[in-house]
Amino acid sequence: MHSGIPVHHYMIVSAILFALGTVGVLTRKNAIVVFMCIELMLNAVNLTFIALSHHLGNLDGQVFVFFVMTVAAAEAAVGLALMICFFRNRESIDVDDINLLKW
Domain residues for 21? Predict the structure, then answer.
């Protein structure tokens, strides 16, 4: 089951997306941007699963993507709820200020 685009092109795009997400997580200070970069990394992994699943001709990777998307949605909901609570307490969503939540 080969499409017109070779599977290594999907892998290259996925690696670039994952690298961009990693750079964003490591360099950004805004917590919402960090969450967006984590979501970008998860989508890069999903692209890899879909491409390899299609290339190998089975549905295991495509089914696994639904589980990853479910976990990503839950992670986004919990993360944004924590950021709202943090913003109400500190009036900032800077990642460096999160250390101030220690006892």
Answer: 7-98
Q: Does residue 1 lie within any of the structural domains?
A: no
Task: State both tokens at 74.
Answer: 């839950």
Give the residues across from 30 on adjacent strands. Answer: 94
DSSP 67: H
Cβ pair 72, 39 in contact under 8 A: yes
pLDDT in tens, the chain (103 residues): 555 888 999 999 999 999 999 999 999 888 889 999 999 999 999 999 999 998 888 888 889 999 999 999 998 899 889 888 888 887 877 777 776 666 5
Q: Any idea what the CATH number is for the domain that residue 18 is in?
A: 1.10.287.3510
Q: Give a yes or no: residue 2 inside a domain.
A: no
* Count of the separate structural domains present in the chain: 1
Contact, 31 vs 83, CB < 8 A?
yes
Q: Is the pTM of this model over 0.85?
A: no
